[in-house]
Amino acid sequence: MVKVAIMGYGTVGSGVYEIIRDNNFDYEALNPIGVKYILDIRDFPDHPQKELFTKNFDDILNDGEVYCVVEAMGGLHPAYEFTKALLENGKNVVTSNKELVATYGPELLQIAKDKNVNYLFEASVGGGIPIIKPMCSSLMSNKIQKIIGILNGTTNFILTEMIEKNKDFSEALSDAQKNGYAERDPSADVEGHDACRKLAILSSLAWSEYVDYKDIDTEGITKITLDDVKYADKFGYVIKLIGYSEKNDKVFARVSPMFVSKNYPLSGVCGVFNAIVVKGNYLGTSMFYGRGAGKFPTASAVVADVIDSVRHIGAKKQYLEWKPAAEGYIKPANEGVFRFFVRSQSQKEQIESLFGNVEFADGIKDGETGFITDLMTEKEFLDKANILNVNSFIRVLEA
Amino acid sequence: MVKVAIMGYGTVGSGVYEIIRDNNFDYEALNPIGVKYILDIRDFPDHPQKELFTKNFDDILNDGEVYCVVEAMGGLHPAYEFTKALLENGKNVVTSNKELVATYGPELLQIAKDKNVNYLFEASVGGGIPIIKPMCSSLMSNKIQKIIGILNGTTNFILTEMIEKNKDFSEALSDAQKNGYAERDPSADVEGHDACRKLAILSSLAWSEYVDYKDIDTEGITKITLDDVKYADKFGYVIKLIGYSEKNDKVFARVSPMFVSKNYPLSGVCGVFNAIVVKGNYLGTSMFYGRGAGKFPTASAVVADVIDSVRHIGAKKQYLEWKPAAEGYIKPANEGVFRFFVRSQSQKEQIESLFGNVEFADGIKDGETGFITDLMTEKEFLDKANILNVNSFIRVLEA
Predict the structure, then answer these.
(1) Cα–Cα dist B148/A336, whole Å
(2) How far is the C-alpha of A46 from the C-alpha of A20, rounded, in Å?
(3) Is the ipTM here above 0.90?
(4) What mean pLDDT do residues A104-109 have?
């Protein structure tokens, strides 16, 4: 039996424990998997296997029998120090910690390579949706051109409630909190930070150069109003929080609310579901859809990674490498090319003299008109918009 | 350089050749891949690498330098004999030939296991969509409960044209043929045989026991009319050709046109696109979407399998096993449980006395009413339907 340790007995960690304990999955390994330690600073005196618990990280680090460690602690510290020490000690590490992967990915992957162990993080993006592994295997025969994702279930739930039930942002947020889909402090979700880290991980994977999440222009959904939702509908769109990245010579990446055409498959992704579109030069458009969060979806992705690391005992490990990005690898935000939906109090004549023949939508808000521009760089758009009386704008997704 | 042979220089085979030749993909192997032979009975005198062509299978079989062979010949014979000989000779084989996999899968997989080589067939289902590999890896921590797929692009194109453009079946079929989406003899697609073979492969993979495609009750779309499309719309559904399988104690599998709720993600899969929903006990619903056919999508999946086999040179191969199914493993078709959409000329009173309070839709066709039953076994339904004056019926997908 292959021995595994779990660090952090919260939602994901306990889900991993339960899946392995119940062994209720379709994997008949030559080497079955068993949990030897659970690390947590809290006490679990009523746990049926309380003998597994330890508060001493060294128990895990120094136990030669522990082959794979699940890091489900979350946060950067001490998750980073623990992960690094484990990899350096030749142990495989599996994590759902997107913050850690997005921040220390290049260093931790390099250590894993040097030590011929796995550092696997399928559960860090899209919860239970298989996306990391397909990108590193099934899509390898393609040059990936674009990644377009609904990467955060909380914001997608809120936007879906706004679109389908006509709730305003704060009411929808409050309902998300009541349903357990949003934290009491929802800023990591609603400000787009969570989606940003996931987009950074996907972009680093797609092109093997590290995309630092701090370099990704990120905008949340807190300013989206029901009037925006109505304008979108009138033009044939829905509003989604989109993580978008593409590579030509450089990588362009951004997280922001976008108008998504009702004909585009991502428009139908509702509630807490996530979906990621990957465009490859040969494959064209593919999409991966499923539950982006939740105890068992996420834990099942962690356990799949554990199985993966166990499958290759004694073999040379497949490794990932995120090279440091060259200077200027990330395109500046204002070079992004979009069509823009604009709400303005200016006269239509002035709008058309600046933006040409655009389609207008009226009657949503008094004294205001909505229109969608042609494709242009963000810089060009902002220069023109500066001349107008602009209330707000939202980018339109070019799929 | 790892040497590869391609058998069959049709659409898929030539796509594989071009992708490998152009090496325009994101795989930097320690071992780059090169084509050493192309087997085809035809002559290609103007081909820039005509020295690669051979008509003699033994050239490939007996060349110790050939590590992996792509079988893109299609059909059962001689693809079966060639594949068997290659595997027995210790060569890895990659194929897009769903007919061969669905028919001889158990035997060929057993030989591959015995010889420690790969027999890989990602491209046999869903074209370029990664589905086989995720089912065999990322979803291994789940017990798969259901597979629901739009597995055939030709029929999905035809149904989409009927739904969106109000064309009748024969006009939509003729347009599919004009666009190159349907063969001159379209029966393999429109009668559901192609979807049936793919469903058999997915079901065999999901539960590791061989599901013979001949045991899957299969119905095509040739009888679907525009009136059916209108009824579906009135009840909140669209009609899709669905491959459905589930496992409780036994496996139940069938291919037929079904009413799919407009709220269900598969309803938005249009045109030649394919999508496969997999339900796992931990993951819940996940969906894989993309181009189910076409030269480069399919060839890119083949090349991904080639890369996969090359990655593990010298290592113990991961193998798949399809055990022979026990007697009675497949549930009889009439034990399937569905709701049924029925078109009938009987009186509503008679319908309700048989089926209880059902929802009716009228006004589509004179002297006829449409209704949807509660959940019942197909046997129970047919017994009741026999009493009525039933024009036709369509199953309703229970997702």
Answers:
(1) 39
(2) 19
(3) yes
(4) 97
